[in-house]
Amino acid sequence: MSAAAPAQAAAAEPPAADARAGGAAADEAAASHAPRRKVFVSGCYDIIHGGHVEFFTQAKALGDHLTVSVASEAVLAHHKAGRRSSMPTAHKVALLSSLRMVDAVVVGEDEERGLDFKSHFLRVRPQLLVATEDDKYGAVKRELCSQVGAEYYVLPKTLGYAPVSTTSILQNIRTPSLCPLRVDFGGGWLDVPKHARPGAFVVNCAVSPLVSLARWPYRIGGGLGGSAAHALLEGRDALEAELAAGVGWQDPAVLRETGLCVWRSGPRPELEFKTGGGFLAGRMALMWTGAPHVTAEKTDVTRDYDQVERAGALARAAALPGQEPSAALEAMAAAVDASYGVQLGEGMEPLPGHGALARKYCGGGWGGYALYLFGSEAARAEFLAAVSETHAVEPFLGHVQ
């Protein structure tokens, strides 16, 4: 090859480069005029989490343009039993718009259940309406798709990590780190739905010291509402957990409410009134009886429910505000003694008196802790000093922390 040949080849390179650039530009121009495959998704997106991000990513991969519709606050209130949004709609729009796979965000305002986004959908006319496999409104969404020739596409919920829901996130936020346990005075068992009696009462009191998952100074199976407290501290629905176990609602109800509470007997908790229970301060103590008990195993034991109801009525009368503390204490001791009489009638072992005004087994009884009610702080102090495995407890009225 002559010396001129490389020079000629080099001279030829720029035109070749120009041709390639022109080809890329032509491809981009052609692509810009090609029809886009539009994808549409909708939801509440009340708290945006990793599952949403993965869903948007998978949905966008099905097309070229992704529109996300977020339900307005008015839609949430109308269709979700008055549910309030966890954050303002403008904040949701800003967050969703910042995601790289999201091309457009709209706010669903339509009133038709499950189709709050309908107006936007008919305007955008996407090729795909994408939903998750647990979509409750699949039927009406398929019908909507048929109006514009779109496909209703279901994505499985696949994540490389443990899934969460908005409900579970909110529950974790609300989960306390500390909560009280409880003692019951009268009407126990009338919180179990199948044993409820109209016009009857259940009376109990949240007590300190508070417990946590890391600090639990009591024995398990003590009749102090421990299973409800544990569920509450783990972020579970303590009320549903207790009802599912076949026991009553009084434990989760009073642990959340706190204070000395009077509840109406029935299938679900209904608070009649509550006080701080100040007359009980310095007067209550617990004694471990030597063996745990499981309340669920005792729900159908034969017992005198007329006497249970009477004990609840006595405890309600003792809890009424405006009484002299000493009179209220004597009245509550009568209620506790009536409850103890029911327990003895079931066949439980008698408890030693230890100089108390009254005593009874906590919760379902047949073991666990026993509640002792004393006439003075000095009498309680003497008991605590003389008897092993005892605890001083106080009425607790405040916020579950």
From TrEMBL:
Metal-binding among keywords: no
First and last residue of the signal peptide: none
Alphabetized UniProt keyword annotations: Nucleotidyltransferase, Transferase
Gene Ontology MF terms in the entry: ATP binding; kinase activity; nucleotidyltransferase activity
Residue ranges of every copy of the Cytidyltransferase-like domain listed in the record: 41-115
UniProt keyword Nucleotidyltransferase, yes or no: yes
Protein name per UniProt: Bifunctional protein hldE
Source organism per UniProt: Monoraphidium neglectum
